[in-house]
Amino acid sequence: MxxxxxxxxxxxxxxxxxxxxxRLKPSYVYDPEKMGFAxxxxxxxxxxxxxxxxxxxxxxxxxxxxxxxxHTDQMSIQQAAETIAAQANxxxxxxxxxxxxxxxxxxxxxxxxxxxx
Length: 117
Hints:
Layout: H1 13-23, H2 32-42, H3 49-61, H4 77-87, H5 99-113
């Protein structure tokens, strides 16, 4: 099963993906942004390939495959992950981490996601 998390910059997609990964065994997080950084360094700057893909991507996201939408404005990362798992009928392991461990896990995800060119 593939769970595709899409949303605005800074909306918590990566944090939610890693929360699901911590509590859903076995699982794997595939971050296409990493491939994007690699491709961007290999493609000459005068080629605007990504910009040409926007309309195609927006049209594709209106497909019936992407009918599940979750508005997370008022949710914590844990609530978003639990809601996604429930909608997909996936049993999550209980989160027995304390608040300090949750904070450090969240911080490590942020730090590992920083890209320096």
